[in-house]
Amino acid sequence: xxxxxxxxxxxxxxxxxxxxxxxxxxxxxxxxxxxxxxxxxxxxxxxxxxxxxxxxxxxxxxxxxxxxxxxxxxxxxxxxxxxxxxxxxxxxxxxxxxxxxxxxxxxxxxxxxxxxxxxxxxxxxxxxxxxxxxxxxxxxxxxxxxxxxxxxxxxxxxxxxxxxxxxxxxxxxxxxxxxxxxxxxxxxxxxxxxxxxxxxxxxxxxxx
Length: 208
Hints:
By secondary structure, the chain is α+β, with helices and mostly antiparallel strands. The protein is built from 1 helix and 11 strands, in the order H-E-E-E-E-E-E-E-E-E-E-E. The chain has 2 domains: about 1-35; about 35-170, Immunoglobulins (Immunoglobulin-like, Sandwich). The strands form 3 sheets. The protein has a 5-stranded mixed beta sheet with strand order 2-9-8-4-6, with no helix packed on it.
């Protein structure tokens, strides 16, 4: 009788150990899954503008780019969004909806995504023509979704916060854009092109 009870106790302990190990394995797998995707910036953290009064047209926007890498299971329908801007200086461009459709994203694949950001110079403290620099980081969040984020069944797979500062270019007889020609239609899904003509000015000698 004593031997039978001992065997039963050992079996129960063995079962409990197996269940515990299985739970630990599931937790570790879940942790790896949560970190299976990454979003990294490839365009730096400064948006350059030209708000000088002697420049037509002024440049108040720039593209930012990111690499989205999937080291987990393949994603059948991947989407990336940019939003949640803090501050009131940097935001999405007037024709930018903040949604980028990647589509299928295989395991181990990396895709580049782009968003057009604009600077509202009138919200920069002390702004006047040629002085639109703002060293205060303007943060925002880029997220990777499985499924269309406008549909309730989508899932957030990765989320990363980035920030941009604003730097106005030199306005005094230095580099200057003289003309910008673009396609008549820049609708989402089309491939626009630009021809920018600029001249390089002379800067004063550097003081030693």
